[in-house]
Design goal:
elongated; mainly alpha; DNA-binding; homodimer
Amino acid sequence: MSNLDRRVQRTRKLLQDAMMQLIREKGYDAITVQDILDRANIGRATFYAHYQSKEDLFLAHHDDLVLTVGLEPLTAEQLLSPDPPPSLVAFLELLGHNRSLYQVIIHSRDSDRIRQGLRAAVSVNLADCLQSGFEKAVSHMPLDALTEYLASAQLALIDWWLNQRTPYTAQQIATMLHQLRRAALQEAFALD
Amino acid sequence: MSNLDRRVQRTRKLLQDAMMQLIREKGYDAITVQDILDRANIGRATFYAHYQSKEDLFLAHHDDLVLTVGLEPLTAEQLLSPDPPPSLVAFLELLGHNRSLYQVIIHSRDSDRIRQGLRAAVSVNLADCLQSGFEKAVSHMPLDALTEYLASAQLALIDWWLNQRTPYTAQQIATMLHQLRRAALQEAFALD
DNA sequence: TTCGATACCGAACATTATGTTCGAGAAAAG
DNA sequence: CTTTTCTCGAACATAATGTTCGGTATCGAA
């Protein structure tokens, strides 16, 4: 018994594709489960046999994608380097290429969890790096507050960027994020 | 014909009080219009004669309060001073005293508008100051992005602060916000 | 105090969306 | 071919929003 009945595969793919289509057309928030069902030509009962909700459907196919990319561990050297780490640039480029999708996702209400999770992940990632790489230096700021500040600021700027008409390049945004982060760290650790 | 019939006053006050009670008990998001009606002992039709929605009811009594306090114009001197401007400290103290309320409000979904409005206001406030006070200096960063970054970061940190168990004082948070902002501006304008 | 205007009540109704249930029938697996 | 599993569809339950309307209570003003 292979784990995936063909019908299951077919159903899930139809639902997923329908959702993506609709997201691009109307935006994530405006979609109802019924919309997805109509578009995918799938029965109501069938939907709930596979997913618990609209959010569930979305996350089932994008969770890991969003949360793993761009979260490679940082090093202290990277943080203090004059240039942004390549992983940051790569992450922004990925988002930039799927701009039409992510700008609508990140902006939606129901995706609060996604944002929260992402922010927390970014914050933790940074915190790990600071703890291991800045052991000797003593900050005059609470570190949890600092990482929260930086993570939120970064995601907010990315959000802003994705919604801009005249886009800067991923490289430019990465540079800007990096410089501001470095400046904040230098301030916090009195490294001037 | 005085503009406010006593019955109107009574009804609105009952609704407002009921909502505030419920917010503190269950959180803004969990409340339904029906909850408010039950608690206030007010008829459904009556509610909709006064307000269009739950959000409408809330904003009718808190809109100006949230949006006007703490947004006194900034000056360049304040931005570069070693100490945070008094208006910032005062703003944080106000929020801190109503912590139980604001932490729940700011966190809610339906109040996205409030957050967005606040963020935009903070951003514009800062942008005005930069334009008038930093005319000569040239930034190597786009200013709109910079103000967006700073405004979001500030509000995120405030949000974090309001939800902390062991609270720092308003003064401490204000100092932190101020120092980080100054560091970012120095970076952006190469004032080191 | 009376009287007309206005606000409230409450109950019913329309609407929209979510989520569940169940039997019949189709498709897959072996 | 048989058995298992999935899908369908329609009905049902639930919950929330927002409207309507006639009857009743309250208000403000004369």
